[in-house]
Amino acid sequence: MVDPSMSGFVPFKNTIRNRLMLLLLAATILPITTSMIISYNATKSSVTEESVAMNTRLLSLGKTNIVNYMNNINQKSLAVYNAMNVPRSLYYLLEHDMEDEVFPNDLTDVIRNRNLLKDHLYNIYQSVQEFHQVRLYVVKTNATYLLRNSDMKVGQTEKPPRDAEYTGKTSIEPTHLSHLYGLTFKTSQPEEPVFTLHRPIFRAPSDELLARLSIDVKLSVLQDLNRQLYDEAERLYIVDKSGRVVLASQEAKQEEVLEWFTKVRRADSDSGYIDQKSSDFKGMIFYDRIQTDYMDWYLVKLSPYTHLYERAGNIARINAGVSIGFLAIAVLATLYVSLRITRPLQRLIGYVNKIETGHLNVNIDIQSNDEIGLLARRFRSMMQTINNLILKEYRLEIASKTNQLKALQAQVNPHFLYNAMQSIGTVALQHKDMQVYSLLTSLGKMMRYQMSTESAVVELSREFEYVQAYLDLQKQRFDTGLEATLRIDPRTKGVFVPKMILQPIVENFFKHGFVPSEAEPARLLLVSELLPDGSLSIRIEDNGKGMTEAQLDAAAQALAAGDQPLTQGGAVAHIDEGGIGLRNVLSRLRLHFHPSSTLELYAAHPHGLGVLMHIPLEEGAVL
């Protein structure tokens, strides 16, 4: 919630300023804004309905043109079956194995036969202007006849073409670059985008495949048929049912097309529109399905919102221009009110700003007898009371924190344990058991560090030494199942920090996050850095089981609660368990260094938990 004093606006009931401001708002901003919203929404709704109707009609017209053209191509391919029983017809040549049965098997007849076949293919090729080339593949002889312009190439490939094995219905192959179907063809004509109609030719009335006719059609014909369906701001696509692009008015990646085409394909009806809001496109997608016996295409048009609502935007800009004129008058009136009537109020706000910077004893010099003068006198009295309460509360807080620190340091104080450990260490040396002696030495370092009450703050290097001794004991316990890395910036070794701020966090890992695994050892990383702004950063990261997002949120709330009581359990256990506790660590950081010190929990990659402490050092530690 924004502090009203920070915005420069303080509400007063029944004052001239308040009444004038309400009058200005009621007379200008509210009606103008309401009019703009109503006008824009009404225009937008009307434009949407009009666009839906218009684009539906356009796509229906485009669909009709495409179906008529494709039916014409399909009809031309059926010319293979014309005059089936007439000698020298194309079907008759295919049915009687062309060069083997129709004529005597000599070179002259072969040439005559091929010329007949060329004439038939040329008739098909010439029947539609946009045909790029015609290919006939004869199954029995594994022969390919390719007619381009007026030239025909005949040859046999090493293996039948892939489409020759297809024995189904007539189909359309989506857009691709034209090719020579495995033949070598000397031509200067460049390859160009085409789509292909493949028709299998069967021996009637059986399903024996005699040949396969393929007609490559120039893609430009689809572009010409649909050029009137869209403008420069829109995109038009023809996509087959598997999502492959047949025609695109603009280049687009296949994955981008599939993103919105999946929604189109799953739509309830074969025509209509859907709203699309993604990083690549925001607008309306109009579509109409083109379905025949030999093809299943979708005609899709993408219209961005910016284009659809351009007219509504123009009206909104006109309204905005008018409203700006009225608002300018309102601003001038507001300035007049602020300068001539509410100047004492501005002075009072200036005093409040000085108080916010810490000048609690500022002299509020406002002597008027109106509401503002009365407020200033009451404010002076209130600040005196607050100042006295702050001094009293500060002294109580210092005493409380001092008692807390002494109580924490007295938690581990049994000196007899340290003496007993020294005796055990001596026995270990006598028996030459160096491992036991090393472990006792590490434990002794920890106890000496804990029992020391010389100071509440220590050098960061001593904190790392204490953690290292603790980890040495844990390594003995887990052997190769634990890998610990400590990286301390040499510039941070001499920085003083509150005692016992690292060990509770490390101990939490073994209590809550440690996951024994033979496949991967447990890893623990401790890093200290001196940041460019002069602050200290300490990061502790592990690869344990970590915490869920819900647990991280609960932990953040627990840290933010400070000294407020919380119900134990769940993610809060990570905060208050483990010896001193993370909330206590954060409290001592803020007490000894700066109130803006932070302690954050985050999810480590690829798994685990991280703890980040940020300690401003510009004001130094309170020793």
Automatic annotation (TrEMBL):
Residue spans crossing the bilayer: 20-40, 320-339
Pfam families linked to this entry: HAMP, His_kinase
PROSITE patterns named among the record's database cross-references: HAMP
Subcellular location: Cell membrane
Domain HAMP stretches: 339-391
Coiled-coil regions, chain positions: none
Keywords: Cell membrane, Kinase, Membrane, Phosphoprotein, Transferase, Transmembrane, Transmembrane helix
Single GO cellular component term: plasma membrane
GO molecular function, one term: phosphorelay sensor kinase activity
Matching InterPro entries: Bact_2-comp_sensor_kinase, HAMP_dom, HATPase_C_sf, Sig_transdc_His_kin_internal
Membrane topology: Multi-pass membrane protein
Alphabetized Gene3D superfamilies for the sequence: 6.10.340.10, Histidine kinase-like ATPase, C-terminal domain
Listed name of the protein: Two-component system sensor histidine kinase YesM
Species of origin: Paenibacillus methanolicus
